[in-house]
Amino acid sequence: MPYTADSLLQLRSMKDFKITLWILVGLVAGGILGEALYQIYDGQVPGGWLSGLSVVGNTVFMGLLKMILVPLITASVIVGVNAIGDPNKLGRVGGWTVTYYFGTMLVAVITGLILVSLIAPGDPSGQGTGLGLDVLSSGEQAYAAESGEKRARVEATGASGLGGALMNLIGQLIPSNPLGAAADFKLLPVIAFSIILGISLAAGGEKTRPVVVFFEALLDAVMRLVDWILRLAPIGVFALVAWSVARIGLGSLFGPLAAYVATVIGGLLVHALITLPLVLWLFTRYSPWRFAVGMRPALLTAFGTDSSSATLPVTMEAAEASGCSRRASRFVLPLGATINMDGTALYEAVAVVFLFQAYGIDLGTTELILIAVTATLAAIGAAGIPSAGLVTMVIVVEAVNSSLAALPGTSTLPIAAVGLILGIDRLLDMCRTTVNVWGDAVGARIITRLTPDQAG
């Protein structure tokens, strides 16, 4: 008996439910195994365990996802831009997309600043004395224990300042060698080149149609690969979560940093469960709950992989299955995975204020406004890879330090202060990456509604 559209939709829903269920099982089982290993070996888990989990999670699963990213982004953006066709329509879609990205990131930052100012997790006594010398000393020692390469990258990023970050962003938007950028896994230059090429192919009409057909076939083949790789997601997520928890233990979420952790997670929950659903409903009148249920494979994968870029293939598949137009999602989601970082922006704002509080340094209204602007811009430059927000956070720290240095008798924050939050960054990064992906998906759904003539 031939399948009807409704029966095919039911089969797809059943398949998504099974995948979601198994990914959830992998998340829970990975957390249990990781914590068990951490407790059994008293925080010194043997390298064999960590290497084995890393091979399965990072080398195999993450490697497969990253393997298809460049061809996926190139093909999807070119096909999406070509489908939009008219440059005026493309400009309208792009304008709404960028407006949404900047707007939601700014709201996320403001949410984080309000919460961290009210809760003051870095000053539990409320006397402006911070967390105490012992806690601060342990954080600076943790920073010193990091590899020289990572410390050099953090310090170089801070030294370049916001101007350097913006110049780097502009340089990526005008790639001199898109193939070299793809080889270096720099996705924003790939997207910029693909948009330009897509416009050119659309302008070429029938003469360039064979090239468009090639990219349409490539996209179809890559999405089939996504479907196959997704079957490994439960195992990959299990290994990644177990690897993360085994290295730092769930107990790191408590102790002197418990209030900080609660503030970050609380801010992310407010943005993910209130702000984004409200924006989605206001613009589309579509049920946020129903949409979130459809996006659950992508959200759980984002939590497990800790990378919005690596999650992109799953996000695109789930978004299209949840009602986002192909034309919108193939343009909005790749761009969002690179520059739309709601969770990262909120985290950076909370983390920076927390560190200044921990060192007993008061911040005025000027510094808070500076943090709001700088955290939003710095988050755009944060690559969709694990812990990128921690590196770009030093841009915000240095911007505030420059403002404070102009005030006589005011202390500044040492870069080594970021060591205070290094231990728990991975677990919090998993949470903020999930919010990043949720924000991308909401954007794709809104753009689908705002440009109905582009519905796929």
TrEMBL record:
Pfam families: SDF. The keyword Transmembrane applies. It comes from the Bacteria. GO terms for molecular function: symporter activity. The chain crosses the membrane at residues 21-41, 61-85, 97-120, 187-204, 225-245, 257-283, 368-397, 404-424. GO terms for cellular component: membrane. The keyword Transmembrane helix applies. Its main location: membrane. This is Sodium:dicarboxylate symporter. It comes from Oceanococcus atlanticus.
